[in-house]
Amino acid sequence: MTDTVVAPTLRQPRRVERLVTGQATSDGAGVKLTRVLTHDLQFRLDPFLMLDAFGSDQPDDYIAGFPDHPHRGFETVTYMIAGRMRHRDSAGNEGLLQNGGVQWMTAGRGLIHSELPEQEEGVMEGFQLWLNLPAKSKMLPAAYRDIPSAEIPEWHTEGVTVRVIAGALGEVAGAVQRPDTLPLYLDIHLAPGATLAVPLPAGHNAFTTTYRGEVLVGDTAVPVKRMAILANDASADGVLLRNAGTVEARTLLIAGQPLREPIVQYGPFVMNSKAEIMQAMTDFRDGRLA
Ligand code: MN
To answer: 116 CA to middle of ligand 1, Å?
Structure first.
């Protein structure tokens, strides 16, 4: 086993403020999933509103999918680790999301879409993150981008592979950049003994969620299916991740600049006020949302 320590080294790694166990739930037409980032953490983890993890080899857990439903006011980022999901929306976009690919959808002023499995058996595994939009962008036209796995930039060193979905790691710019929230979205694979230091601005809210093995975040062991919320100590300059186990460990590291605007969510609508939510519901009912 060789240790890999990556420059820049950190003066003071962030500590884990809290470990969170996700909540088992179902959504759509009955897809079983784990809500890792729940409603009560929306302010703490601003600009992130929700993170769902799904993973099963039992078709009954995923086969019904997510039939037509609306969104307004934020973005959804779906990362498929395994499986095939078909997206169709009211703007005429259609895409097949599969094996390591990302779909970055900006709901903006509104769209109606479906997310349906295109497999009848086998493993379906992935994550859906909800990223808030600033007030000034909530009513912009909807947008949509499919990013196949081969187009996701990767950063490599011995024992470490990082898939840079958003933001940047060192010289490697991710597939997506967002100026208002500066999201960092990394899928980090650590061989046994490997260590990775990732610089993070102290003011950015950040968390990890382990999805294979166990990851040491600073001094705290984060087991599979747990989220670690990273403290925002002003003197800390990043996060130190290490695999002290004997099998490969994988974690998502997600961080961003908070918007510090009011958050009002009603189901698939996330706006800044109750009046705007009422408007979204009226627009949807009257066929003016999308
Ligand atoms: Mn959706």
So the answer is: 10
pTM to 2 decimal places? 0.95
User: What confidence tier does 151 reach under pLDDT thresholds 50, 70, 90?
Assistant: very high
**% of the chain with per-residue pLDDT over 90:** 94
pLDDT in the model for residue 144: 92
Which amino acid is present at 37?
L
Looking at domain 2-285, which of 2.60.40.10, 2.130.10.10, 3.30.565.10, 2.60.120.10 is its CATH number?
2.60.120.10
Q: How many whole angstroms from 160 Cα to the centroid of ligand 1?
A: 32
Residues 94-129 pLDDT 10s: 999 999 999 999 999 999 999 999 988 999 999 999
For residues 235 and 230, give the distance between their C-alpha atoms in angstroms, rounded to a whole number.
13
138 dihedral zone (left: phi>0; alpha: psi -120 to 50; beta): alpha
Whole-number Å distance, alpha carbon 184 to ligand 1 midpoint, is 21
pLDDT on residue 266: 96
Q: Can the peptide bond before residue 13 be classed as cis, meaning omega within 30 degrees of 0?
A: no
The residue type found at 221 is A
| 49 C-alpha to ligand 1 centroid (Å) | 13
User: Domain spans of the chain?
Assistant: 2-285
As given in the structure block, the two tokens for residue 254 are: 């997600």
Distance 158 CA to ligand 1 centre (A): 37
Tracing tokens 């859906």 back to the chain, one arrives at: 128
As a whole number of angstroms, the distance between CA 195 and CA 224 comes to: 17
Ligand 1: centre distance to CA 114 (Å): 7
Burial class (CB in 10 A: 0-12, 13-18, 19+), 83: buried
Q: Residue type at 214?
A: E
Ligand 1 centroid vs 80 CA: distance in angstroms? 14
Residue 234 confidence (pLDDT)? 96
Helix-then-strand count for the chain, H and E: 1, 26
